[in-house]
Design brief:
Blueprint (H helix, E strand, L loop, with lengths): L2 H32 L3 E5 L2 H5 L7 E2 H7 L2 E5 L6 E5 L2 E5 L5 E3 L5 E2 L1 E5 L5 E8 L2 H11 L6 E16 L11 H4 L5 E16 L10 E8 L5 E19 L1 E5 L17 H9 L2
Parallel strand pairs: 1-14
Antiparallel strand pairs: 1-8, 2-7, 3-4, 3-8, 4-5, 5-6, 9-13, 10-11, 10-13, 11-12, 12-13
C-alpha cells in the first residue's frame, strides 16, 4: 500500500472519530440535562392488596435503584423507609432496624432523590394542612413527586403492620388490627410520595408518607403530624419503571382485575 493511501485511510479514521465525538457532545448533553430521576417500583399495589407478601426484590437491589423511598418488608413485616441510601424497617412493636442487603420487599418505590424545589412549613397543626401546603407548592398534579420534610415535629402518629403467615389475608384485613404509635418532639424526616390518578392499580394514588426519626428509634406509616417549622425538599420525576416479581411468584396467579381504589383509600387512612 502506498504512503498516499495510508495517509488517506488514517485521515478517514480520524475524521470519523471526530464526527462521532461531535455527535456525542451535540446530542448526549442535552439529553442528560433534560432527564429526571426515575421512580422504580417493585410489584404493584393491587398485588399487595390481594395478599402478595412474598419478596420481589432484595434491599441490595432496591438501593441500587434509589436512595429514597417507601414500601414494606417480606412477609408484610413492618413498614419500609429508604433514606440516604439505607433501608430501615419499622416493625409492629415500634422498633426500628437497619436492613441488610439480602432482606426482601414485596412492594416498594424508590428513586435517587435530587431536590429541584424547596419550601418551608410553619405552624402546621395536622396532616391535612401539611398536604394542603404541599399541593400548593407542587401544583403539577400529573407529575410523579417525592418529598423530603425535615424538622422537629411536635407530635407524630404512625402505624406499622405485623408479619403474616400463609395463606395470606387481604391487606384490608391486616390493617383493621394494626399497632399504632405516638410520640412528641421527634426530630426526623417525612418520606413522601404523591402519585397521579393515572397510576391507579399500579400504586396508591395521592399522598403516601412514612416517618423516620433522626435517631432511628421511631417511625412508621404516617397517620398524623404537627410542627412549628420544617424544611421541604421536592424531587420531581417524569420517568417511571416497574419491576415485576420473579417467575413462580404468586403474583402471576393472582386476579388483579379488581378496582381496589376505595379499598386503598380506607387502608391508607385506617386508624
Amino acid at each position: 500500500m502506498s504512503n498516499q493511501k495510508r495517509r488517506f485511510r488514517f485521515s478517514s479514521v480520524v475524521l470519523a472519530l471526530i464526527v462521532l465525538v461531535c455527535a456525542y457532545f451535540t446530542f448526549a448533553k442535552p439529553c442528560c440535562k433534560n432527564c429526571s430521576p426515575t421512580v422504580t417500583q417493585f410489584s404493584t399495589i393491587n398485588a399487595l392488596v390481594e395478599g402478595n407478601y412474598d419478596g420481589v426484590a432484595t434491599m441490595g437491589c432496591l438501593k441500587k435503584a434509589g436512595d429514597f423511598g417507601i414500601g414494606c418488608v417480606e412477609p408484610l413485616d413492618g413498614e419500609l423507609a429508604v433514606l440516604d441510601g439505607e433501608a430501615y424497617q419499622i416493625r409492629f412493636d415500634g422498633s426500628v432496624h437497619k436492613l441488610t442487603d439480602e432482606i426482601k420487599t414485596p412492594f416498594a418505590a424508590v428513586l435517587k432523590f435530587k431536590s429541584s424545589r424547596e419550601g418551608q412549613v410553619s405552624n402546621v397543626p395536622d396532616l391535612a394542612e401539611l398536604i394542603k401546603y404541599l399541593d400548593t407548592l407542587i401544583p403539577e398534579s400529573n407529575m410523579l413527586v417525592a418529598v423530603r420534610i425535615t424538622g422537629v415535629f411536635d407530635h407524630v402518629h404512625t402505624r406499622s403492620v405485623p408479619p403474616q403467615k400463609k395463606p395470606y389475608p387481604r391487606l384490608s384485613d391486616v390493617t383493621k388490627n394494626q399497632p399504632e404509635f405516638e410520640a412528641d418532639n421527634q426530630e426526623g424526616d417525612i418520606i413522601a410520595f404523591r402519585l397521579p390518578e393515572y397510576l391507579a392499580g399500579v400504586n396508591a394514588t395521592g399522598w403516601h408518607m412514612h416517618f423516620l426519626s433522626k435517631d432511628k428509634k421511631f417511625g412508621g406509616h404516617l397517620l398524623g403530624i404537627s410542627t412549628k417549622n420544617a424544611s421541604v425538599k421536592v424531587c420531581l420525576s417524569r420517568e417511571f419503571r416497574m419491576v415485576l416479581p420473579p417467575e413462580g411468584h404468586d403474583f402471576y396467579k393472582t386476579n388483579l382485575s379488581k378496582d381496589t381504589t376505595d379499598e386503598l383509600k380506607t387502608i391508607e387512612t385506617a386508624k
